[in-house]
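can u do me a favor
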């Protein structure tokens, strides 16, 4: 057993008794690690109000063997991300980020921590959070989960003769309809063009994006390879 200083976030809190809890930490040094927080609700001095989501903390952890739960000895806040806590829209956005990680990632790795940390900082510091920002977050999280967006072989004639692009799905019998505006956003995302953050979408476009994400999440959760064939290949499994 040895004591390590780790830096990161509390991702999940599971009550263990009236005073104790099991925490899932997402750390820069070790990725995801479960720890036992004894006296969490009774010891304010050791944890200093740091056991909450969206707080970047320094954790003192007593590491144990793999088959035993490590112990959280103390914790203190390094960055409180006050804007996330004080602005409802940013709080919802940050909650969505954690939800995506919990649903898509089988394990929290130290490499994934870099993106998670940068996204929380972006949410906290951004002047405005819009729907395009949410899309970028979702697509980037899919990339981390092993789904790489790719748009190939765009045919201008297709756009001039048909106002919609249809993606077929192996999971759902219905077709997923995307407009030219949406496809241009996807191309911009692939090219890492910052202009996509200014894209605007109507309610029908938002619904079709939602259907696309639901299909992809379902596919990942069932460990199926999802292919969406048309004149282009949009998503391809990379791991």
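np, heres the sequence
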């Amino acid at each position: 057993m040895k004591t390590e200083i780790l830096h990161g976030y509390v991702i999940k809190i599971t009550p263990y008794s009236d005073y104790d809890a099991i925490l899932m930490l997402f750390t820069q040094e070790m990725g995801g690690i479960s720890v036992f927080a004894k006296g969490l609700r009774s010891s304010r001095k050791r944890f200093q109000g740091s056991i909450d989501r969206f707080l970047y903390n320094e954790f003192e952890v007593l590491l144990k063997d793999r088959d035993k739960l490590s112990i959280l000895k103390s914790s203190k806040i390094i960055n409180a991300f006050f804007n996330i806590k004080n602005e409802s829209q940013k709080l919802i956005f940050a909650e969505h980020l954690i939800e995506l990680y919990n649903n898509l990632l089988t394990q929290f790795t130290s490499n994934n921590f870099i993106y998670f940390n940068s996204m929380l900082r972006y949410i906290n510091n951004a002047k405005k959070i819009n729907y395009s920002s949410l899309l970028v977050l979702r697509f980037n999280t899919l990339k981390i989960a092993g789904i790489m967006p790719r748009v190939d072989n765009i045919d201008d004639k297709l756009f001039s003769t048909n106002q919609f692009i249809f993606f077929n799905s192996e999971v759902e019998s219905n077709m997923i309809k995307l407009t030219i505006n949406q496809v241009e956003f996807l191309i911009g995302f692939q090219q890492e063009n910052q202009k996509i953050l200014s894209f605007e979408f109507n309610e029908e476009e938002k619904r079709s994006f939602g259907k696309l994400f639901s299909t992809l999440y379902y596919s990942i959760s069932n460990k199926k390879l999802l292919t969406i064939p048309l004149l282009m290949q949009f998503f391809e499994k990379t791991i």
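The longest helix spans residues 203-221. hope that helps!!
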